[in-house]
Amino acid sequence: MINAMKIVGGLLLGLSLHGCATYKPVPEGYTGPVAVVADSGTPGDGRKSVIFAMMDVDGQAISTSFGASASASYGQGASLTTRFIARPVPAKPMKVRLKGSHITGAPIHAMASQIAGTFFSVEGVVDFTPVAGGSYVVKGELKKGASSVWIEDRATGLPVTEKIVEK
């Protein structure tokens, strides 16, 4: 039974990560100006966390804290090891998809939280123009009927994109 659970877990992890993290916003050999964008959130209780992340750049999937957390949690049963990542991006106008969501160590916990009304998620696409050398962080809030996500300047704490608000 345990081996079957490991196989199913591995398949679910593989499916959840399929196609992710293949695109690098700053390709090898790029010599232009860059900025850094970090995901954020709260680690939670070891079974459920909150993540605010940049999911793709100009329609191309990138490495995210959702994928990093899933990889770090593989083989731990229902336990969740939350990982927050940052990545360089070119300092040029782009469209980025942002997501704010709860994440759990096991799909059954996500379903139970959704049924209980304690699992929130919001996502959408915004225009973003990072400044060369800038440092940014994806921020947000998750609450019933009013979840939102945006990018802010790490130095000033001010939003630099529009806020994506749950509808």
Written account of the structure:
The protein has about 170 residues and is of the alpha+beta class. It has one domain. Helix content is about 20%, strand content about 35%. The protein has 3 helices and 10 strands. A hairpin with a 6-residue loop joins strand 8 and strand 9.
List the helices and strands and how they pair.
Blueprint: H1 2-17, E1 34-38, E2 40-42, E3 48-57, E4 60-61, H2 65-73, E5 86-90, E6 94-104, H3 107-116, E7 121-128, E8 135-141, E9 148-153, E10 164-165
Parallel strand pairs: 1-8
Antiparallel strand pairs: 1-5, 2-3, 3-4, 3-6, 6-7, 8-9, 9-10
Beta-strand segment tally: 10
Major sheet strand order: 5-1-8-9-10
Strand content: 35-45%
Q: What Rg is obtained from the alpha carbons, in whole angstroms? A: 16 Å
Q: How is the biggest beta sheet arranged?
A: 5 strands, mixed
Helical amount among residues, as a percent range? 10-25%
Name the helix and strand elements from N-terminus to C-terminus, one letter apiece.
HEEEEHEEHEEEE
By helix and strand content, what is the structural category? alpha+beta
**Average of the residue pLDDT scores:** 85
N-to-C terminal Cα separation, in Å? 42 Å
The dominant shape is globular
Taken together, the total number of domains comes to 1
Number of helices: 3
Weakly predicted, low-confidence segments: 1-21
